Amino acid sequence: MKSYDTVIAGGGIIGASLAFELARRGQSVLVLDRQEPGHGASWAAAGTISPAPDSESLAIAALGCESYRLYPEFVAAIEAVSGRSAGFHPNGAMELFFDPGGETERDRRLEEIQSHGVGCEAISLSEAKRREPAIGPAVRAALWIRDEAYLDPRVITQVALAAASKAGVEIRDDDEVISVLIEQSRCKGVLTAASRKTTTRRLDVRAGEKIAARNVVIAAGWRSGDIGGVKSYAPTIPVRGQMVALGNVAGAPRTILRCGHGYMAPREDGRTVIGSTLERGAFEKHMTPAGLRKILDAALTMAPALAEAPILETWAGVRPDSPDHLPILGATGIEGLFIATGHYRNGMLLAPVTAKYLADWIATGKPSVWFEPFSPLRFAATRNAFTAGEKQKKGPF
Asked: How confident is the model at residue 381 (pLDDT cuts 50, 70, 90)?
């Protein structure tokens, strides 16, 4: 049985970036994905890299700012090794407000963003129109967020995978991790099964194998909790997001635009990607009429010229959420087992910080202070307390 320093379950942007960083630290790494690597939540993402907080958690805001700080170095590294451009554009973004009290709402949001050290300023409507002529007449107030970037998630994920491969990482598709292997409270590897089934004598059969590793990282997105031995540390929840890509049209925005009902981001090829829905518990990757209408209504309010743009593509992806909407990062109560999932809407943003500090932790054995608020142990502790309470209610028999 072949053995590795680290096996990573999941070949999205998180798994690919972490594999690359571990390989740079001299580790032998295997990445396993149940489908084609990079074709899960990473493939479906919008590609806005925004450290501006979208929740009340101070910890996640700080983590996002640190990851944005690391992004140029991360991009330069994967581009240098892969020989390909990742298409990172730190050009800023505009946040729009449409309610009658838009200026008050803008000022509150400005204070919130600036309190985290993110570059941001209130701008007049005339200045907003000068910077982005595409915005519509319904706008009442605007913010300019300097510290924001856009990229194509499908491109950067493939660049990260290529860099990892060139750095010596072994990457396999059609190989689903179905459980971790535990011996005497230590993780010893994983049990896998082929994603595609073959039929033999009317029975569905999936070939599988045991793979040994000193460390295992579960980065399998919303399916992480389905892996045997992992659920108590990673109770992941699927959240579907529907997306639309529009073709180039005169007057289309070339800046990231967002409001309380949606957002849009430009692409290098002239498309505009718009989204998105938040459908908790939905894991089927299909569009709905209600979702499409929500997305288009928000987009046309922000940039009316898009009404004439052709619809080039629609798709849906499934984000990995957690019960408290925070990432699940770090070591578990089982030696050698780590979790890197639950990034929810911030997988693209948090890839550099997750990869760098988790790779350091695995390679050196020294925990990262960045991950203390996101420990997988927070769920295991809650689960154990609940179980103990239920036993007390039932009595000893």
From this structure: low
Structural domain of residue 28, as residue ranges? 1-88+149-235+322-397
| pLDDT for the residue numbered 390 | 43
Quick one: three-class SS letters along the chain? CCEEEEEEECCCHHHHHHHHHHHHCCCCEEEECCCCCCCCHHHHCCCEECCCCCCCCHHHHHHHHHHHHHHHHHHHHHHHHHCCCCCCECCCEEEEECCCCHHHHHHHHHHHHHCCCCCEEEECHHHHHHHCCCCCCCCCEEEEECCCEECCHHHHHHHHHHHHHHCCCEEECCEEEEEEEEECCEEEEEEEEECCCEEECCEEECCEEEEEEEEEEECCHHHHHHCECCCCCCCCEEEEEEEEEECCCCCCCCCEEEECCEEEEECCCCCEEEECCCEECCCCCCCCHHHHHHHHHHHHHHCHHHHHCCEEEEEEEEEEECCCCCCEEEECCCECEEEEECCCCCHHHHHHHHHHHHHHHHHHCCCCHHHHHHCCHHHHHHHHHHHHHHHHHHCCC
CATH of the domain at 50: 3.50.50.60
Share of the chain above pLDDT 70, in %: 92
How many folded domains does the chain comprise?
A: 1
pLDDT in tens, 49-100: 999 988 778 999 999 999 999 999 999 999 999 999 999 999 999 999 999 9
pLDDT tens for each residue of 189-223: 999 998 766 655 555 556 779 999 999 999 999 99
Residue 297 maps to a domain: no
- 33 is a domain residue: yes
Q: What is the pTM of this model?
A: 0.92
pLDDT digits (tens, 9 = 90+) for 295-335: 999 999 999 999 999 999 999 999 999 999 999 999 999 99
Does 58 fall in a domain?
A: yes
